[in-house]
Structure formats: C-alpha cells, structure tokens
Amino acid sequence: MTDEAQKPSIITSSLDFLVNWGRTNSLWPFPYGTACCAIEFMSTEVGRYDLSRIGSEYVRFTPRQSDVLLVAGTITYKQAPILKRIYEQMAEPRWVIAMGACACSGGFYDCYCTVPGIDHIIPVDVYIGGCPSRPEAFFDAMFDLQKKIKDESYMKQRASRVKDQLEMIKAKTAEATAAAKDFAQAKVEMAKEFVSEKEQELVKKAQFWKE
Amino acid sequence: MDFKELTEKFGGKLDAQAKWDDCVVVPREYLHNVVAFLKDDPSCKMDMLVDIAGIDYLTYPNHEGERFAISYAFKSLKHPGLRVRLKVQVGESDLKVPTISDLYANANWYEREVFDQFGIEFTGHPDLRRLLNHVEFVGHPLRKDYPAQKRQWLSTNDYLLPELEKRLETLGYWIVQRSKEVETKDNEFLEGSVKE
Amino acid sequence: MIVRDSNGETLDLMPLNVGPSHPATHGCLRFMAAMDGETIVASVEEIGYLHRGFEKMVERGTWQQVVPYTDRLNYCSAIMNNIAFCRAVESMFGVELPERCKVLRVIVNELSRINDHFVCVAAAFQDLGGTTPFMYAFNPREEIMCIWEKLTGARLTNSYARIGGLSRDAYDGFEQDVLAALDSTEKALKDLHACLDRNRIFLDRTVGIGKISAEKAISYGWTGPCLRACGVAADLRKDEPYYDYETYDWEVVVGTQGDCNDRLQVRLAEIEESVKIVRQALKRLAPGPVDIVDPRIRVPAHKLAYQDMEGLIGRFKSVYEGVRVPEGEFYSGSECANGELGFTIVSDGSGHPYRIKVRPPCLTQFAAFHELVEGGQLADSMAVLSGLNIIAGELDR
User: How much is the pLDDT for A155?
Assistant: First the structure.
C-alpha cells in the first residue's frame, strides 16, 4: 500500500467501519478446549446462553475456517507446541481469547508441567477470569473483543500490531529453552561425575586386590 | 482374607502401615509368582488389577527401609468386596522391579506411569517410556527432591511413528519401508499469516 | 509405509495422526493409526497432554486444600470426586457421618452422575453428526447447574464435600428444585430415546462397533458403565455399599454385547436409575446436622469461632495446620460416573498429605482403545472414543 493510501480519509474510514462491522458480527470461534472451561463453553453454545446470537453460529474445529482461537483450559508443556502450530495455521484476521484461570496464568496448577499462561506462547487479545469462566463472563469477553475489533484499521497489518507481544514471547521462549538446556547439561555433568567416581572406585579396588 | 499362604509360601509380611485394609509386603523377586497366585487361586481370584502406585519415602518422618515402595491394589469380581494390596520395597541403588504386564493388561500403562514419575524400571516391560510427561523431560517429577515449580520447555512434540511400527510388528507385520517424517512446509502457512 | 503381513502380501499403509486437538470434544487425546485405505490396521495412543500435576500439587497444601483439586479430575461430575476423596479420608478416621449428610451426599452424587452421563451422550452424538440431542441433553444440565449454583456457589467445579461433612446445608426450596430438575431430566431422556432408539444412522454407526469381550475388559481393569456394557454386573454401590445404597430400590444396568451402542444405552438407563434413587432419597431427607461434631476433623462452624475460645482455636488449627489424618496407607475406591475412582493415600500423621495417588477410571479404558479400534474404520474410531467417555482431566490428572 502506498503511503498516500495509508493516510486515513473518509473512504478508508468507511471501509474500516464496514469491514469491522462484518468481522465483529460473525466471529467464528475455534474452541481449543482442553479442560473444564471447555465444558462451560459447551454450555454457552446451547440453550440458555446461546452463542449463535452473536454470530458464532457453529463452532469450527479447524484453524483454517475460524477467526477466534478460544483457548479454554490448561495448556501443558506437552500441548504447547501444538497450540503454537494451530495458531500459526490460522489465517489473518485472527484473535485469541484466553478463557479461564489456567489459560490466563496457569491457574492454581503452579507446577512442573503447566505453562503459566498462554501468553508465553501466543499473543492474547482478551483474558477471561474464572475457574471455570461463567457463560456470562464469556459473553462479556466477546463483547470486549468486538469493541476491540471495531477500533481496528484493516490496513495496518496485524503483525505489526502484535509485534510487541511476539517479541516478548520470543524472549520468554529463548529463556526457557536456555534454562532447559542448562538443566539437561547439569544432569549430564552429574552423570559423568558419577561414572568417573565409580571408575576410580573400581580402579582402587583392583589395585587393592592386586596387592 | 487368609494370608497364611502369602506369608509362609512367599515370604511376605503384613504391612503395619495399612491399618484400614489388607496389605502384604513381598520381596520383589517373588512378585510375579505372588501375583500369579493371587490371580489364579480360587480362594481369592483377584481378576482385576486396580492400581499401581509409587511412593517415595524420602521425607517421611521416622522411616526405616528402602526409599521407594510400589503399592499394587487388586480386586476380585468373583468375590465382591475382596481386596488386597501388595507392596514391594525398592531401594535407590537398585531400581528394578519385575513387570506384571503379562498377567494384567492395564499394568502396562500403570508401570509406565510409575517409571515416568519415579524412575523405577520394570524389567520385561514391552514398552517402557514416559506416559504423562513430555519426551524431552529430564528427571522424575514426583520424587520428593524434584522441585514442584521447576518447569521444562518442550521444543517439539514427539512423533509416534516408532511406537506405531512396534505395534505393527507385534501384530505380525514386517516393516519393509519406513515413512519419512514430515516437516512443515512453507505453503502450509497461508499468505499473510505470521510464522515464527 | 510399506509392510508385509504374515501371508507375504505387501500393504501400503498411511500413518494418520489424530492429534490432541480434534473435533471430538474430548480434549487432549492423541492416537496415531496406520491406515490401509479406510481401515485402521494398527494404532497407538498417547496421553499426558493435560497432565497438570495433581499429585505433586496436593503435597504442598493441607488435606482440606485437596478438595478443589479433586473437583477438576472428572470435571463433568465434580462433586462425585470430592465425595470419593472425602470418603477415603473419613474411612481413615473411622467416623460415621450423620444421616442427613449421607442422604444429601447420595442426592448430589446421583445428580452429578446424571450430569456426567448427559455430557457423554451429548458429545457422543455430536461426534456422530447429530447436533439436536446435544441441545436436548444440555437442558436438564442447566437446571442441575442452577441448583449447584444456589447450593454451592459454582456451576461446574464446586468443592461441595468436606472431610467430615459438607460445606453447607441445603437451602430452602432445594427439594422443589431437585424435583423440577428430575422432571426435566425425564423429559430430556424421552426426547433422546425418541431421537436415537430407532434411528437408522445411529444404530448402523454404533451397533457392533468397538466390541470387547468381558475377559479382556476385566484384564484391562475396566470399571463402571463400560464394563457393565460388556455384561459384567459390577457396581461398587452394590458390591461394597456405602451411604446406605443397598437400602434404596434400584438396579444395576447391564448390557449384552460390549459394543458402542451398549455403552451409550447403559448410560441412558443409568440416568433413569439415578432418578429413582434421588426420588427415594428426597423422601428420606430429614432435618439434622450435616457435619460431624469433632473439631479435629471438621472445622467448627463460623458462629462458634466468633463466640467461643475453643471454637476459635479449633478453626485456626484446622485451617492453618490442616486436619491431622492418622498415619498409615489406604486405598479406597468409589463408584463415580466413569467407574471406580480410587485414591491410594499415604499419610504421615501431619496436616499435609504425604502422597495421594489417583486411580482414574478412564486410564484403563483408554489403554484398551487400540483393541477396540483396530480392524475398524476411521469413522468408527470416533464413535468408540466418544462412547468411552474419556475425560482428560481424570486421565492425565
């Protein structure tokens, strides 16, 4: 896009309004449901709290066809590369909602296997608290997301919008992989020391028996 | 339940810690025979293995004996209500226990979990690898000396192809040519999407 | 990959990964299947994608703080897990609960079981393609969850049971609400049976699919509705009864074939039996205390803490140091919605648990998944998977 075209004008702002109206009222979620929040999401989909009244008529379980990646439930380190892969397979425009305490911050599982919040892995737009999040909270979050989308200008590439978040994620990933490497190396060192100690003991024993 | 055979024939001892149910501590060499006896003997007929739990006694107050123990819980469907537990003590220096996965099919996964969380190896197990933690995990998390908050990053998820090939071989197929492991290609990411 | 089978024929198999994120709304399960066309020749499964470290987390708190963690094991029927755990610890104390507590526990147990079976059946039908039963099945769930909200404060993961009683007594109007929910349940059951019993597509897709023999199921350690669908009448509520289950008038539902259809129909029939039990239990509900009056086990009531010195001290010690469970080891299993949920508890006599191992019922059922699926087609594997009711929270803990 040339520089002149990027300057805001009446044409681009009406276009923005139209495009955002379309996007806001037909958000198709991809429920990446892992744990309890997924069950509450199922309750949100049906009957009393009806998800289709805000445009998400049927949930698509494929990243290609959906707009909103709705991470509902705990993400563990085993699951993390898969979440990242799915996020990368989604087409722009895409947004991420972190539903539930576990997705926002790891919840009360502060242990060796849970990722302390999915914003260590992918950039997040809306966080919903709760354990599990109530359907009303979920709707509140969807409305927040809609407000956020209304303010977007479709010309500014989304990548630049989330650049800060992506940098933070890169830094955190590098830190975590470095820590993992150090830990693994430390274990290897310990194992080597152990082996060399045993060898020395055997050598001593052999000498003793020789004498 | 009559424990005479277990204590006399197999050298088991009644566990003093089990105050509300029956538990017998057996030496690990006789484990397989004891379990086979429990399974086949008509007086007890323990046809279901209920649970295998690993226990680490490192920080247990006033504990004498080995560091680890494995508790096997059995249940009988023929005599409803009849349950028994076996306990095997495992020391840190010799972390090997015979497997019972040939007698009970679910022992396969239970033993894999004990191996994953505690590091106890089961000799004779067909497929001893981690069950719950990821493939790049170093250490055994449920041991008392593993800090609870120590997180370990995973860079890629494991391919199950080797396990699949093993399964095919147990079913009687002979692998002639392996599959190539698939790498993500650039055209998987749509234009405009962000790739790291 | 190219393989040669025992007859010398070469087959070209395609390994297909049905990954941890897939449309069947069961969360994090993964299996890799070697396919010959549409038929699955071999498959291996993988779990651990929701391993949250329950067993490590409970070691750092007190015994009462374990109850919210147990909620999230089988999150569709959360209160059953709480009750299973509290029952195990109360057996270690050797105490007898007051009558009202037992009856209330039976009522919430069975209502949770109804909830869980509805989720399983609804998700199963959605996986097979039908979205209408999903909507029908969630209506009584909403009513029951409203009851939970009024009773416990939360809709889904409510930590209702406490060691030695319940967190609070039933509210005024509880019985009317439960009766209304039961009527809604019966209506939904009628609708579901109308949708499914003679539905050609459903019957074709589930009858004869995923058959397992009773011996194999027992060897794999199956319990619960999946085992009962194979024809084995094993139900802990009848075999090792607790909370006066043997005094209620109900029957164990048993299937015949051990296939997918049986597993789902057994669950629907169990909902009816649970409704029967709840109706009888409501008649037995009499006023009385809901907690044990023993400050070493159940924390003294709030009122006493504000009035009495002993109440205050009791409350402080109970909350701060934890309930002191007697030293020893114990295994106890309860009949939860999926089967026998067991806890192997090792206590060192202090207020903090030393080791709690959970015996999840779904682990054994998923371990046998490859037996059910091999030889069938890929679409059948989805039907099988949903009929087993694998809850990842319980499977991986």
Answer: 59
Q: Determine, for residues B148 and A111 on separate chains, whether the beta-carbon distance falls below 8 Å.
A: yes
CATH superfamily, domain C54-292+325-396, is: Cytochrome-c3 Hydrogenase, chain B (1.10.645.10)
Q: Which residues of C touch B81 (CB under 8 A)?
A: 239-240
Q: Residue C15 pLDDT > 80, yes or no?
A: yes
Q: How many domains does chain B have?
A: 1
Q: Which domain holds residue A59?
A: 3-157
> Residue with structure tokens 């681009």?
A12
User: CB distance C357–B141 less than 8 Å?
Assistant: no
Q: By the CB < 8 Å criterion, does A34 face chain C?
A: yes
CB A35 to CB C51 under 8 A? no
Task: Identify the top-confidence range among A160-164, B125-129, C261-265.
Answer: C261-265
C8 class by beta-carbon count within 10 Å (0-12 exposed, 13-18 middle, 19+ buried): exposed
Interface test with A, best of C67, C69, C72 (most A CBs within 10 A): C72
Read off φ and ψ for residue C34, nearest 5 degrees.
-95, 115
CATH of residue B64's domain is 3.30.460.80
At B181 the pLDDT is 63
Q: Is B122 within the bounds of a domain?
A: yes
What was the pLDDT predicted at C268? 92
Q: Identify which of C15, C48, C357 has the shortest CB distance to residue B133.
A: C48
CA distance C10 to A99: 49
CATH number of the structural domain spanning residue A91: 3.40.50.12280
Structure tokens at A189: 């060192």
Question: Which residues on B lie below 8 Å from A161 (Cβ)?
Answer: none
For chain A, what is the domain count?
A: 2
The distance of Cα C348 from the centroid of its chain, to the nearest Å, equals: 28
Question: Is C367 in contact with B54 (Cβ distance < 8 A)?
Answer: no
C156-198, pLDDT tens digit by residue?
889 899 888 898 888 889 999 999 999 999 999 999 888 888 8
Could you say which of A34, A112, A131 has the minimum Cβ distance to residue C27? A34
CB contact under 8 A, C53 and A112: yes
Residue B185 in contact with partner chain A when CB distance is under 8 A: no
Give chain C's count of helices (H) and strands (E).
Answer: 17, 10
| A175 and A97 within one domain | no
User: CA neighbours within 13 Å on the CB side: how many for B29?
Assistant: 2
Please state, for a pLDDT cut of 90, what percent of chain A lies above it. Answer: 9
Residues 6 or more apart whose CB falls under 8 angstroms from that of A32 comprise A69, A70, A71, A72, A73, A83, A86, C21
Tell whether B188 is covered by a domain: no
Query: How many beta-carbon pairs below 8 A join chains B and C?
Result: 171
Interface predicted TM-score of the whole assembly (ipTM), two decimals: 0.89
Instruction: Say yes or no for a CB contact (<8 Å) between B154 and A80.
Output: yes
